[in-house]
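Hi X.,

You mentioned you wanted examples for the new student's onboarding notes, showing what a folding record looks like when two proteins sit in one file. Here is a clean example. The first protein comes first, with its sequence line followed by its structure tokens.
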Amino acid sequence: MKLFQSFFILFFALQLVEGQQLHRTVCFEHFAKSGGTYIRTILRQLDIDFIISNEFERACDKNKHFVIGALREPASYYVSMWSYGAKLSGRFFDSFEFGDGEPVINGLPLYGDPEDNQYFINWYNHITSVNPYGLWTYRVMYKYYNGSYLMDDVKHLVSPAYDNYEVEFIDILTHNVNCWIETSFMEENIRVCLQQYAAETGYPLNEPQLEETLIEGRKLGHNKSKHRECSYYWTPKLLTILLAKDGPLIKALNATICKEEYTTAFQGIS
């Protein structure tokens, strides 16, 4: 099942009943390692008027804008985040304090050859040891949920006594975003979002131009990080940590794990 597939069906149905609002600027909610460079390239090539709400901003207002949200499933998100830092650059890499300059903490190298998954194992073990919940959960919560009191919000949603967190979280998402682009289905989701934008605002979408732009965008618009296939890096032990740290939102959003249904990916993991 595609990431958020059942959520998207509900989400689209809710959008239809809200009615059309004309003359809205596109506001793109950028989420790191989710194809933002490619999406921005497509919007520019089509000469669509848009603004960007950067990763740690919450600048989009659905009452004023047609809001496009970006997300990536957590397993490949972590791999891409780590491998981008393997170039010894990037905003997240720069957030570490490596002392003598080498990417080593507590004697363990966190970055190195992206073909060697031991570096990823060291990195993931370190970043998950710092906080009670996963980086992916925190960033999704900040970007698309409350954005103010992350620890309290996460505790609220994952509390065993609170049985309705999936409903509340999805309800918040449907009220903050008009259309979603998920990395695994990038081109398909871009088509759907721009068709929805055209239908709601009267924008004269040129479908043949869109297809040409998607093809051209593959060549021009990716901010790639070098790594092997996602599943190569995830040992059973790491999957156990992923389930513990990001499990509630993975389940709420019906997220895949390296393009595999989470129920299958976590089979035998507790």
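Then the second protein repeats the pattern, sequence line and then tokens:
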Amino acid sequence: MEARQESLFDHGRRSVEPELLRIFKQALKAISDAWVPGALDHARARTKARAADLERAEGNLERVWQLVAAGYLTVSDFREAVAVWRDLHFQVIEVFKNVRAA
């Protein structure tokens, strides 16, 4: 088995994955704290565009995570992707709360 050669860019670079995980967990907790059961099912059934937005945001979040971990994007880029993902979930929750209240 051949040993991996160290790149000049590897020297001194710490892993950002623990920080990415911390940022993601904070957003996930905020969503979980506000969550209303049935909100996502409602979004999928009634607002297909919103459900598609959520899927795109989740895919983007995964892509940005990988690019940050590889050193191509910054942690700030990941924070922005998380904020979009989190805010879309909050919008789904609010829409569902309004529908249930009506």
